[in-house]
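We close this part of the discussion by returning to an individual protein. Part of our work consisted of pairing the sequence of a single chain with a tokenised description of its backbone. What the numbers capture is local backbone geometry rather than side-chain detail. The amino acid sequence and the backbone structure tokens for this protein are reproduced below.
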Amino acid sequence: MQSRVKLLGHPIHQMLVPIPLGLLVMAVVFDLVHAFGGYEGFAYVAFWNIVAGVIGGAVAAVFGVLDWRTIPSGTRAKRVGAYHAIGNLVLLALFTASALERAGEPGFLPSTAGLALEIAGLALGAVTGWLGGELVDRLGVGVDDGAHLDAPSSLTRKQARLTPRV
């Protein structure tokens, strides 16, 4: 089932997801480096990674919802997509709460509770990432209907056909 919102022939949602995910993962890493190594500059980087990651995640979510709306009702893909979306909204809320806790002083390490929120968000991200992979790799959401190993480039005007021409 093809994505309905594409850029240069590829689903926008799938292109946007790695950026906020990477920012949020590194925010946790930088906060842990600060917590255990005492390198204060890492707290600033972690804070701004969270801010950028939450904004990027919200933008990616818009395109994910647009694609999810086109999945037929009553299908496993529709249910998995809903769990994926809800989990990612909770993830963004967890990281937002951690950032808000230290918004006045972004150079400081979050409290133990704030760091726990980030780690919980990271763990939830592993689950929602798996669900996203399930949608694409197992259920074919966002994949061109005629995709195959010799399909033409998405930059051409040629349609991918289910069976390649011989």
User: Anything to note?
Assistant: The mean pLDDT is 87. The first helix runs from residue 12 to 16.
